[in-house]
Amino acid sequence: MAEARRFSVSAMPGFRAITLAAFAMLYAPIVIIVVYSFNAAESISVWGGLSLEWYGRAWENEQVQEATVRSLLVASLAAAISTVVATAAALGTTHGAPFPGRTFIYAAINQPLMAPEIVTAVALLIVFASVKVATGYTGLGYLILAHSAFCVPFAYLPIRARLEGMDLSLETAAADLYATRWRTFRRVTLPLMAPGVAAGAMLAFVVSLDDVIITEFVKSAGQDTLPTYMLGQLRRAVTPEVNAISTALLGLTVILLTAFFLLSRKRD
Amino acid sequence: MASAAERLAVSDQTRRNWLLAAPALILLLLGAAGPLLVVVAYSFLKPGEFSGVTWEFTFDAWIGVFLQQDIFDETWGLADAHLAIFWRSAKLSVLTTVMTFVIGFPMAWFIATRPANKRAIWLFLVTIPFWTNLLIRTFAILEVIRNQGVINSALIGLGLIDEPIQMLYTDAAVLFGMTYVYLPLMVLPLYAAIDRFDFRLAEAAFDLYASRWKMMRRVVLPIVRPGIVAGSILVFVPSLGAYVTPRVLGGGKNMMIGNFIELQFGQGRNWPLGAALSMLLLIVVLGALLLYVRVSSDRAGERHG
What we know:
Radius of gyration of chain B: 25 Å
Structural class of chain B: mainly alpha
Mean pLDDT of chain B: 87
Distance between the termini of chain B: 32 Å
Largest sheet of chain B: 2 strands, antiparallel
Helix content of chain B: over 70%
Distance between the termini of chain A: 40 Å
Oligomer: heterodimer
Radius of gyration of chain A: 24 Å
Mean pLDDT of chain A: 87
Number of helices of chain A: 12
Number of strands of chain A: 0
Largest interface: A-B, 87 and 90 residues
């Protein structure tokens, strides 16, 4: 016993130090952004005391307001649409015996994860540019369509994971008790898969909220979302206002992710 | 032999499954896969006068990816500017993959050897940055390394330097930024592989007088190879197509292929060339993914054999 304690099979010299340094590296820049968003001074080299000034400025900035509303609107609609279609697809592909074409459907649904985002962005730019000219419509529909599409795999995967772990005999039992198909779905399947659906929706929402590249290429003039607004600000000097927006967005993401983990961990 | 009724039930089931998947497939066809086919078509057309294309079939764009014609003597030569960008993209992507492995392997090992109840917390700490907005993380790096940023201010404040060190807008900045943003993509699959590693094998190696490094090289690395391949692909693929990080940290001079593609749809206004470049990027990425599938299924075959 004493021997085993002195000599650990798994301890490697230096690994702990590298790990701790790497975690410090991962978090330090984020912490800096958060801390400096509360800095009263404009320069990052001066600490002017705690202040909410930059949050106030961001809040009053009309462009930021509009971008925030647009981001939330697009993300909500994209999450809703992608979750509905992904739920149906998950029920079709995961529930029950394998069928002809199932592998094809898997591959098709995961396709957006495989193509580099810049390529999809360029493809959408090309197609939507022609559609915009042909129809004269330049509204938010394009952004919502594009976001819904690339959110599908993110919504689909947690739902599928949930369905795969589900006990199918409960549905058989419901059918044995003369429940109709719809009733079985509503009273048995849906409540059981609900955490997966919620997790998928949240993931889709976060992914849509964070998107930069596809939005940058698809948006029409004056349709900035928060990330593209921030990217645009970069051409001018970096202002602490961007730090404040980043921190707010970061907070929202962390809350949603924590909820996602709690939901996807909870087995039955 | 299935009866007619059973066969009918099976095909009924298949039809129902396809109908359930149909909305998702249609959405993806409209918003992702379909437009990719249009890009293929565009790469074989002539550029339009201001932007867009004229509908005339030509291989010009594809030839233009690699070759260029001298304006004066009309001789063909390699398109040096393009090749320089390809080379930078490939080099930075490979280096990013190597860097994330060198840092990520000790992290994954460390996490996998924690007591079971602590692992989830460490993993969550890796996952938070992974799901945090890439743009925000790139901005964070920008704040750290720019001329008026944290490092330079601190060094000047301490009196160590008088002039800020130019770190931003260099290849090193892009490499550092990509290593930073893609590190979790390496750690997670490595962790999954090391977590399954049977530590009795390490014990056996030590019993046979292997040193720690020899044990690592001869026992651990071959066994966790699928995790290494998965992590490398997951880092290499987005690095090669990176757009945000090189744009923010590399500036206009240190372009990668993603930024070069965008340029074709902006000032350059050569849409077919941009389309051909996009297809080239897509082909390389799909090739890497196919390689990954082959490597992982080869191993599955070994296990059965």
